[in-house]
Specification:
374 residues; 2 domains; transit peptide; two-stranded antiparallel sheet; 6 strands; hydrolase; mainly alpha
Length: 374
Amino acid sequence: MARKLALHLFLFLLTLFTTTMAGAEWRYGRSFFYGADGFVWPGADTWTQIAGGLAFSLGFLGFLTTHEFGHYFTARYYRVRVTLPYYIPVWLGVTFGIGTMGAFIRIKERIFSRKEFFDIGIAGPLAGFVVALALLTYGFTHLPSQEYLYSIHPEYRVFGQNYADYVYTRADDLAIGRNLLFWLFEELVADPALLPSRYEIVHYPFLFAGFLSLFFTALNLLPIGQLDGGHILYGMLGYERFNRLSPILYTGFIFYAGLGLLSLDINPEEDWWMWAGYALYLFIVFRPLFPEPRRGVLLAAGVLSAQVLVQFLWPDVQGYNGWLVFGLILSRVLGVFHPPSPNEAPLSKGRILLGWFALVVFVLCFSPAPFIID
């Protein structure tokens, strides 16, 4: 038992370090430990900046921890055997990231009712959502002056408050996408004179941590398979109705994600492999939806044809191709369907209302294009 606790603590502390490093890199717009001449041991001033990454790491890890312990304590309430959270640290040191791939708990025995699936599934996102609201509230009500941004980008000073009209000219400029909740905070809470461009949110640790918290909340609330949103919708609908609906929602998700991936101007003789590769991807992700391979081929062909038609009729329509990676994980790792439980008794009206509230939270948090490089 002590060794298991030590492992969880070690992973948490390591993730605290990696997210602090990532937070410092985003906040100050530079890498640490590596310079133009390779490895560089940080000086005293650099360690001060690294410590500045704690504002991001404590906020974002606070969200992740609250989310996972929402699941954990609810599972323990139902006497379901469950592990403490496993944190996943990721920091390469030479490229920007967020320092982690998230956290997860392992449920070590079967869950016996729709109610338990629903309660365990919904507890994490709603608990984490409270932390996300706190991060955004603090971040938008404590925006620093313009001098803060000039200290990171002194070249912006000559443009003044209208810097955004002049400085974003590179092909790799990164902006965060918008969602309804972030937009509401910008419109109703923030001081317009202090509000940064969407390209600069990464330098504002509480706003960046808050946005990522909304992103991960929406990701978990997708009503597909065995994601938290899948557990919630399964609890509301039951085994048969959910497993008829989930593949439809998944197909719509992939359809949107792939829009605009391949241009109709591609030369089919020279670049046929691009179309073939994408067609193979569609077959791979749709194959697990059916017992017969033929039906997976037909669905893949239908989705590809519909995407081509949309692109022909509306050439400017663009999905978010980054979702295709998550679509592959959903199909081949997490699964699109939900297992049954021995007790399929329907939920109470109160839980049904709570499920609809979770849907509202999903709509508020979801960004159709969360990270934009243009």
